[in-house]
Design brief:
The chain is of the alpha+beta class. The protein has six helices and 23 strands.
Length: about 375
């Protein structure tokens, strides 16, 4: 090989090396610049919810806040149609702040567009596993239930996402058969104000024997069978945390309950006068847990309500009331609202599954039943 050829080859190698280094430095600087921009995208939190995001807005310094929605939009990163998330924009110095109408969802990534140009991405981290929600109570708590059971209650430790019960609550018969359409598909679902207690109704149309759903599909539960209500751990709370563990309620069924609760047959264990002993009320059957917390009260004979605390007993077959002060009188009244129900939805005045084609008189027309009792000496 000639000397000239060798010089040309070495020159080409030096040039390629130099341009390679220039390209590497430019790429690294670009990466640093992009990283610096992403670092200025800040998620803002409130009560463990991602309630807003702030990001650089140098291109928008001369733009008013009212015009921001026309120039800026936030979308789901995986969204193909790039539909803008609803919310409000504001400015803080050289930053733009976006507050979505609904807090950002944990586990999802989002894209920022300024004048239709990709201006950064951000992700909402999943909830801390140590703060995972749990299903801590299930009512009715008994392991033997009537085949015309009407409602169940799920108590969670955290506010849960709504509209999810149809996906994550399953009824299994005899360990293998999934019962479809067992629960009434109510939208919105029946949550308490804090979204920690969910009421699920087994389909009343299938429970009432004179209705077409019952004649066509039969009751959701049948007598002398074993059932499991399974709640999947994939159910998420409002912060995106999945249930710590799946939940399983196992029970067997007995015959229909067609008899209304009868307070006249309840047994009272009376407290001693001058003490703070609780009064204990034994119902002789399981009653609706939710209504038990609302429909019982104690008053004096003059109608003055007593302050104190009710506690529901095992299998919801009893309750006891501990007064805030001593029993100072000889006579008191246990008041029971007649809307109190058993597990089959029979309240004190009416049966749930009654023949609607026939005139049915209520067992009682009273809204409250008074049960007098005396304190012990």
């Amino acid at each position: 090989m000639s000397v000239i050829c060798k010089q040309l080859i070495f020159r080409e190698i030096r040039l390629n090396t130099m341009f390679g280094l220039i390209f590497f430095v430019w790429t690294s600087m670009s990466g640093c610049k992009k990283k610096e921009q992403d670092d200025r995208i800040t998620i803002r939190w409130k009560e463990k919810k991602a309630v807003s995001v702030s990001f650089p807005g140098q291109k928008l310094e001369s733009v008013s806040e009212d015009a921001l929605p026309k120039l800026v939009k936030i979308t789901r990163k995986s969204s193909e149609n790039q539909v803008a998330i609803l919310g409000e924009f504001s400015k803080e110095g050289d930053l733009v702040v976006f507050e979505p109408l609904v807090p950002f969802t944990r586990g999802l990534d989002y894209q920022i567009y300024i004048q239709n140009q990709n201006s950064g991405t951000f992700g909402i981290p999943m909830a801390d596993a140590s703060d995972a929600p749990e299903l801590v109570q299930f009512f009715p708590s008994a392991d033997t239930l009537p085949e015309n059971l009407l409602k169940v209650f799920l108590h969670f430790t955290h506010p849960m996402r709504e509209g999810q019960s149809g996906k994550f609550v399953t009824l299994i018969k005899n360990g293998s058969d999934t019962i479809h359409g067992a629960f009434l598909d109510l939208q919105p679902e029946l949550w308490n104000e804090n979204r920690t207690i969910l009421t699920l109704w087994l389909d009343p149309g299938r429970i009432k024997r004179d209705l077409q759903p019952n004649k066509k599909l039969g009751t959701p539960l049948q007598n002398h069978a074993s059932y499991q209500i399974i709640v999947s751990r994939e159910w998420q709370d409002t912060n995106g945390g999945k249930l710590k563990t799946a939940f399983k309620k196992t029970f067997i069924t007995t015959s229909r309950d067609s008899i209304s609760p009868a307070p006249a047959r309840w047994k009272l264990a009376l407290p001693k006068k001058g003490t703070n002993q609780p009064i204990k009320v034994h119902f002789k059957e399981s009653l609706d847990h939710s209504l038990l917390t609302e429909t019982l009260s104690i008053t004096t004979v003059n109608g003055q309500p007593l302050t104190g605390k009710w506690r529901i007993g095992p299998k919801e077959k009893s309750a006891q009331f501990t007064p805030g002060g001593p029993w100072n009188h000889d006579n008191y009244i246990l008041q029971v609202e007649t809307r109190l129900e058993d597990l089959a939805g029979n309240n004190i005045n009416r049966h749930f599954d009654r023949d609607v084609s026939k005139e049915s008189r209520p067992l009682s027309s009273a809204e409250i039943i008074n049960i007098p009792f005396n304190t012990q000496k």
